[in-house]
Amino acid sequence: MANGHIISVLGGKGGVGKSTFAVNYAIAASIDSKAKVLLIDLDPKACGDLGMLLGVKPKRTMLELGAIEGKFDPNSLGSFVAVHPSGIHYLPTVLEPEQMGSLDPSHVSKALTLLSGFYNFIILDLGSDIDGPTVKAIESSTLIFVLTLPEILVLHHTRRVIEKVQNLLFPPEMIKLVVNRFSAAKGINPQLIQTNLKKPVLGVIPEDEITTVSSMTKAQPFITSAPRTEITKSYFFLVRNIQQQQLLEKLSQLKKPSDALSRLGGNKGSQPGKPGDKSPSMVVFDRSQMKDEKPADQWSSLKQRIHKQLIETMDLKKVDTETGNDPKKKAVLREKTKTVVVELLDKEEHPFRSRDEIQKLVKEILDEALELGPIQDLLADDSVSEIMVNRKDQIFVERKGKLVLSGTTFSGTAQLLSVIERIVTSVGRRIDEKQPYVDARLPDGSRVHAIIPPLSIQGPMLTIRKFAKNRLTYKDLVKYGSMTEEMADFLRCCIEARLNVIISGGTGSGKTTLLNVMAGFIPPGERILTVEDSAELQLPQEHWGRLETRPANMEGKGEVSIRDLVRNTLRMRPDRIVIGECRAGEALDMLQAMNTGHDGSMTTVHSNTPRDAVARLETLCMMAGMDLPAKAIREQIASAVNLIIQQSRLADGTRKVTSITEVIGMQGEVVTMQEIFAFKKTGMDQNRKVIGKFVATGFIPKFIDDLEQQGIKIPRGIFSVG
Fold first, then answer.
1. Residue at 530 is within a domain
2. Which of 15, 66, 155, 710 has the most crowded Cβ, counting Cβ within 10 A?
């Protein structure tokens, strides 16, 4: 049917669920009206989101369609659009965000005019910024949905979006509100929103996080996967409401401006709609700059060409998802990809012809396509304990406690960003302009932190603290000089006797490694629950449950903190609770657990001395928001904690247990402690290595009698000053 209706979906603010709405509304319109519906992704900040929500792979783009010269062959439309099982068609505007710079607004008008001759309805996901392509899309639209939430801050931003559209002289009647994630408990009802924004509320979508998250996870829109839910019914009600009012027919008679683009420059908060222009709120990380980076040499240029051809030949994202972390599947995939790479290299003209050069070239391309690019070899190097990528051409590594500049570099910022995205998506996390930093982990447990512009000025930064391939034991720590055999035996007895232990230390001092070793002392018959931000601990015990925090989703919901998990562990019948690190209010929950029958629990805190660790715990407990007096918190600490172990990274890069201190109790307002073992530095040798020795202070712990009553014998001689 010619001259189909185009419906634009604008977000009142980022994170209002606009893409989810566009997908499900399109399917509801198709099912209810038995109409031909096309869904187009025109939001530069959420490029490809609609394809992920639908679970379909795009074919070609509206950018290509709009650039076609001459007469369009209707039979070729099928080569552009992807078909979803529900019957709707999907067409992305571009495949990568940096391609938006090549999108001329006139191409948008041309493509939409062409497509409206084939579809009854075209649903456009436009984002929340008003730029050149958005303006041309609205010029072609019959109806504008502005999606908002029943929240004061979102409504404030929604008002601005509406004002921007109206300032471009579009008819006010075109703009209709849809209230998403509505709950009566939120207090702001649709009537109040309608009055406040002076626009009619055409639809109200109830809050249903379980159904929404489930559909996003499975890439199955809830219109088809959950047809009987209230949220699904609300979409069909909206579709039928529009039909009954004959709203689209009425709005199609309105006269819309054809020169709105010329007024975009004067619209407050926007810039002129030239190709590649972005409003100030969009300029956070210009990926187009990455695309324009010129390779440093022929080697890098050849790799980039082969990698681009490889992406066109194989759907790497799909096969990467299908293989997961299965080593056998990965090996098979690598061999298949290697065959394709060799074939592509044979077709290229290049000066690299020796066997060694070709093998190196193939390996680097495979590492970039399937692994972690140039840092893959650094991860495999056992002498490297930490990798710090400051920018694409500067990678530092830590070897034997010393930082050195590696000779490895990335070919470009795009490659570095691709590696970061590969890491974080594998553990269900994300990094983008809305969430420009993330903590993640590698399959072997290595800790990863990444941060991208605008927060990191020189480009994406990546830090990987490697996890040892073979689990370290106390014998390894003794061998490396981190502690003595007597200290290790003492700590094992303390753990077996179910003493509560705090491991204190600075960043990179080895706290997590020591925690992992000490948790290995726990008897095998006990139930252990570990709680971490990124799962790193590797325990030998069989009866072990691992809990990991979860960041907020794209809509800002669903976050699960360490404190939430600690509370959950108390309902899971643990014998021991091990927290990777206390850094906020969970410290109070941990102390309460230690004081209420969960003896033998362990955690780490950031501090420089055992005395500082007590002060740090006191500060963290105050962050719980319980408004407890300082003395009550100190009494909790004195009662709960038995032992504080100080782990330090010395000037020469070595890591040692510099103090083992017993917490005795309270004396007035002060928590009293007594050091049992210490590392005494005596100087440095000619190679700048720290000279010192482990000594006993002569103090015998007060809990020694309790240990002996449990049948745990500790020779008193180890506490003698030698």
1. yes
2. 66
The highest-confidence range among 226-235, 302-311, 313-322, by mean pLDDT, is 226-235
Residue 540 has pLDDT above 90, yes or no: no
Helix (H) or strand (E) holding 260, with range, is helix 260-263
> Alpha helices, DSSP H only, in 148-226?
152-167, 190-197, 209-218, 222-225
505, 607: one domain: yes
- DSSP codes joined into one string, 81-105: -EE-TTS-EEEES-SSGGGGGG--H
Are 421 and 461 within one domain?
yes
As a whole number of angstroms, the distance between CA 534 and CA 448 comes to: 9
- For the record, the structure tokens of 194 come out as 């309608």
- Asked if residue 381 is part of any domain, the answer here is yes
Do 521 and 405 share a structural domain? Answer: no
Q: What is the arrangement of strands in the sheet containing 655-667, beginning at the earlier edge strand?
A: 544-548, 528-532, 576-579, 602-606, 501-505, 643-649, 655-667, 670-684, 690-696
- Residue 388 structural domain: 298-465
Q: Residue 386: beta bridge partners?
A: 398, 465
Tokens of 59: 């074919």
Burial of 212 (0-12, 13-18, 19+ CB in 10 A): buried
**Cα(473)–Cα(517) distance, rounded to whole angstroms?**
5
Tokens of 161: 């979006």
pLDDT for residue 270: 36
- How far is it, in rounded angstroms, from Cα 105 to Cα 44? 13
Give the integer Cα–Cα distance in Å for 460 and 453: 6
Which of 403, 436, 465 represents a domain boundary (last residue)?
Answer: 465
- The domain that holds 522 is classified in CATH as 3.40.50.300
Task: Clarify whether residues 57 and 13 are in a common domain.
Answer: yes
Per the CB < 8 A criterion, the answer to whether 154 and 16 are in contact is yes
Tell me the β-bridge partners of 530. 546, 578
Alpha helices by DSSP H, 541-641: 562-569, 586-595, 610-622, 630-640
Query: Which pair of structure tokens corresponds to residue 395?
Result: 């990678």
Domain co-membership, 15 together with 68: yes
Mean pLDDT of all residues in the chain? 84
Q: Supply the CATH number for residue 334's domain.
A: 3.30.450.380
**Biggest CA pair distance of the chain:** 97
Q: Pairing mode, if any, of strands 121-127 and 143-148?
A: unpaired
Tell me if 289 is assigned to some domain.
no
Residue 327 shares a structural domain with residue 408: yes
Of the residues 413, 438, 465, the one at which a domain ends: 465
Q: Are 42 and 141 in contact (CB under 8 A)?
A: no
Q: Fill in the amino acid letter for 131.
A: D
Structural contact between residues 441 and 537, judged by C-beta atoms closer than 8 angstroms? no
SS3 of residue 388 by DSSP: strand
Strand 143-148 to 5-11 pairing: parallel
| Number of domains, the chain | 3
Q: String of b and e for 315-337 (b: at least 16 CB within 10 Å)? A: ebeeebeebeeeeeebeebbeeb
Q: Are residues 541 and 480 in the same domain?
A: yes
pLDDT band at 295 (very low <50, low <70, confident <90, very high): low
Q: Report whether pLDDT(667) > 60.
A: yes
Q: Name residues whose C-beta falls within 8 Å of residue 23's C-beta, 6 or more positions apart in sequence.
A: 39, 50, 53, 54, 221
Domain assignment of residue 282, yes or no: no
Question: Cβ–Cβ contacts within 10 Å for residue 290, how many?
Answer: 21
Give the containing element (helix H, strand E) for 342: helix 327-347
Same domain, 419 and 499: no
With CA atoms as reference, report the closest residue to 697 among 672, 716, 678: 678
Rounded distance between C-alpha atoms, residue 193 and residue 188, angstroms: 7
